[in-house]
Write a structure and sequence with these properties.
Blueprint (H helix, E strand, L loop, with lengths): L8 H8 L5 H12 L3 H4 L2 H8 L3 H10 L5 H13 L14 H21 L3 H13 L3 E4 L4 H12 L6 E4 L7 H4 L7 E6 L5 H12 L3 E6 L11 E4 L12 H16 L2 H18 L3
Parallel strand pairs: 1-2, 1-3, 3-4, 4-5
């Protein structure tokens, strides 16, 4: 028999809510409002937040199926790391200036960690491969899609055959069936991707194409891709911080343009001439 997946912290809370004592229900509602507080607060702090006793907190986590508050807190931390924004909401400081400063500092730390993780010649090798490819495929899902679109839009100035996946109204199979060894596939694997993203990455590798994986998922290192570019997306708030992913896409695009040579300059000139003909800009 196939084992059912473990229930998440939030699903456990919602499941027992109708059967709780009024005091426990007050605690449950506080947790549902700001589930991220479970990750960083002690049992006493959660009790004070909901105006209940420590004993109520203990009973509550046992009804959820956890042996202790620490076990429940660890579950929330683990689930938050998988990308669930809901579990990164909390009742922390709400000062605009300090919030902006925390975000700025976290972005800087993420950039430093990301850039320290790869050698500059990796980016140049990828840029060179993009120029040499029969076709370039760039894929992203959920938060990764606009980043993939940005990268595709930028390099298309000097690389004519670029496709951003998924195409509107098409299945992925309609594109993946045409992957060839002379192609390059750049796939963004960010947390909480649909499972289809992994299937696409596997398919690209199996096709013989050169594959670059960009993302914040440690398990992507297991795929035998040509490039693995790990981005740090640690966040000081409820949303993952994708500043480093955008920076990497910008770096790849910049190096692709800079290494395009006479062909790239000619193509960019032709595009500018066409802008004038069409009066687009």
């Amino acid at each position: 028999m196939k084992q059912r997946p473990a229930r998440t912290f939030m699903s456990r809370v919602r499941a027992i809510l109708p059967d709780l004592h009024p005091t426990e229900r007050r605690l449950a509602e506080a947790v549902l409002d700001f589930p991220g507080d479970m990750a960083g607060y002690s049992a006493s702090e959660i009790a004070a937040l909901a105006d209940v006793s420590n004993a109520t907190v203990s009973r509550f986590v046992r009804k959820l199926g956890y042996a202790s508050f620490d076990e429940a807190r660890k579950a929330v931390r683990d689930e938050g790391r998988t990308g669930s924004a809901l579990l990164r909401f909390g009742t922390g400081p709400d000062d605009t200036i300090s919030t902006a400063a925390r975000h700025s500092e976290q972005s800087r730390l993420n950039l430093d960690a990301t850039y320290a993780g790869f050698a500059p010649d990796e980016i140049d090798a990828l840029a060179h491969a993009l120029h040499s490819a029969r076709r370039v495929w760039i894929a992203g899902f959920r938060a990764g899609y606009p980043l993939a679109s940005y990268l595709g839009w930028q390099i298309k100035q000097v690389v004519p055959n670029v496709s951003v996946l998924p195409h509107p109204g098409e299945t992925l199979a309609e594109s993946a069936a045409t992957f060839e060894p002379e192609d390059v596939a750049v796939i963004l694997l960010l947390r909480r991707n649909p499972k289809l993203a992994w299937s696409l990455a596997d398919t690209a590798v199996e096709s013989g194409a050169q594959v670059a994986l960009i993302g914040d998922v440690q398990s992507m290192e297991a795929l035998p891709a040509r490039w693995h570019i790990t981005c740090d997306t640690t966040s000081s708030g409820p949303l993952l911080n994708h500043v480093s992913v955008m920076a990497v896409c910008n770096l790849i695009a910049a190096r692709t343009l800079e290494m395009s040579g006479s062909f790239g300059r000619q193509r960019m000139g032709d595009i500018e001439d066409m802008h004038d003909r069409l009066s687009e800009l």
